[in-house]
Amino acid sequence: TRRAIENSNYYEEERKLARLISEECQCNSELTHVVTTGGGPGIMEAANRGAFDVGCKSIGLNIKLPAEQQPNPFITPELCFQFHYFAIRKLHFLQRAKALIFFPGGFGTLDELFEMVTLVQLGQIHQPVGILNVNGYWNGLYAFLETAVGQGFIPEAHQRMILSDDEPAGLL
User: Which residues are registered as beta bridge partners of 129?
Assistant: First the structure.
């Protein structure tokens, strides 16, 4: 379908980023960082596949869902973990992350993004939170943040806690 073709750009951008991160952090003599995803299909698969493309390891933190999401085939087999609860899975992401990068996604992505930004706002985590605004996907989020600041629900200083690929931002 037309939508699938349009969304393939997200997949390719994520795959490219994961290749770059993996080459930089694993293909030398020292393993410093490993791409970690939710382990499922789609854009999560693209990140695991990007690491796989260059012969590097990647982690998949898969969640068991009613629709029985299966881990994607590009996760390093011994680094594929199954979770029953989202909260425990998010805890494992946070324990391991040096940075959190969000690509376009649905409700699960929004849940994780807003929880991570809230934890940064509260000073409970200090990892940078970034989003890649591929094809303007997150423009609505930026508009929401502007509205929330304008209405006084988010302090102006906190509006820019989400790092963007096209608008430099800083953490508090």
Answer: 100, 162
Check whether 168 has a pLDDT greater than 50: no
Per DSSP, the residues of 69-103 read PPPPTTS-GGGEEEES-HHHHHHHHHHH-S-EEE-
Characterise 55 by phi-psi region: left (phi > 0), alpha (psi -120 to 50), beta (else).
Answer: left
Q: Specify the pTM.
A: 0.85
Cβ density class 16-54: b for 16+ within 10 Å, e for less: ebbbebbbebbeeeeeeebbbbbbbebbbbbbbbbbbee
Is 90 exceeded by the pLDDT of residue 16?
yes
Alpha carbon distance 69, 60 (integer Å): 12
* Long-range contacts from 73-78, C-beta under 8 angstroms, 24+ separation: 74/45, 74/48, 74/49, 75/37, 75/39, 75/48, 76/51
- How far is the first Cα of the chain from the last one, in angstroms, to the nearest whole number? 42
What confidence score (pLDDT) does residue 150 get?
93
Q: Please, what is the average pLDDT of the chain?
A: 85
> Which of 168, 169, 165, 171 lies closest to 10 in space, CA to CA?
165
Q: Give the max Cα distance, the chain.
A: 51
Helix (H, G, I), strand (E, B) or coil at 130: strand
